[in-house]
Amino acid sequence: MKVSIFATCLVDMFQTEVGKATVELLERLGCELDFPTTQVCCGQPAYNSGYVKEAREAMKNMIRTFEHAQYIVTPSGSCATMFRDYPHVFKNDSDWREKAESLAAKTYELTQFIVEVLGVEDVGAKLRGKATYHTSCHMTRLLKVGDAPFKLLQHVEGLEVEPLVNSHNCCGFGGTFAVKMGDISERMVDEKVNHIDESEVDYLIGGDCGCLMNIGGRIERRGKEIKVLHIAEVLNSH
To answer: Which of 16, 97, 110, 236 is the most exposed place for a label (fewest CB within 10 A)?
Structure first.
């Protein structure tokens, strides 16, 4: 099984441990990995802000970068969703439409790939404590990844996973939304942190770095003793 890693901007610049955990986990599961060094941003921030023409240039670079890949795996539901949306972006472009469709078809979010492609639910992870899981909007609503993270977490030895009240609610990040609508974003993340705190957990786990940065930052500012972990870090713990 040959897998090309799509690291994402946030992992590359802020949360490199998530990238390392993703690589180590997939290698442990028998995957042969490569990391195309010409990868950059998937174009999502520009595209969502209305800069479609500029975003398409970044997207074309990513299509060329991963053209050789058998499978593309990323520790981000949000960025995987953007790759899956490329066919829509290039639907009227005869030169790029088929290439965009090929890229989308072989792109997977990490937990989705492990469960649906590798057919694995127990990766041999161990983490003692009590946790709750944040279901990010892009990953669940757009990419339609629902059960995969929970199937993997229920097999982590020593980990007790508590349901999160109103887990379907957005954390308030939403990319540039958190910048443009800061007051509303703050109220949304406060509501999320309140529910996490009520769960009386040791860990908050999630699958999107943007959400985890947003929620984790608020947890820290409010002085809560809750450790924030990406699910790749949890699944790689042993």
So the answer is: 16
Radius of gyration of the CA atoms of the chain, in A: 18
Residues 63-118 have pLDDT tens digits of 999 999 999 999 999 999 999 999 999 999 999 999 999 999 999 999 999 999 99
Alpha-helical runs (H) found in 42-181: 44-48, 52-65, 77-89, 97-105, 110-112, 137, 148-153, 177-180
Residue 108 to residue 145: CA distance in whole angstroms: 10
What angle in degrees, to the nearest 10, is found between the helix axes of 209-221 and 182-198?
Answer: 80
Whether 123 and 155 have beta carbons less than 8 Å apart is answered as yes
Please write the tens of the pLDDT for every residue from 126-154: 999 999 999 999 898 888 988 999 999 99
- Residue partners of 156: CB distance under 8 A and separation at least 6: 125, 126, 127, 234, 235, 237
Phi and psi at residue 5, to the nearest 5° = -85, 125
CA gap 34, 11 in Å, rounded: 16
Which residues have a Cβ under 8 Å from the Cβ of 186 and sit 6 or more positions away?
Answer: 172, 218
Which residue blocks in the chain are alpha helix, DSSP H? 9-13, 16-28, 44-48, 52-65, 77-89, 97-105, 110-112, 137, 148-153, 177-180, 182-198, 209-221, 231-235
Which residue's structure tokens are 């942190």?
193
Q: Coil, strand, or helix at residue 17?
A: helix
Spatial strand order of the sheet with 157-162 comes to 157-162, 126-134, 203-206, 227-230
* C-alpha 79 chain-centroid distance: 7
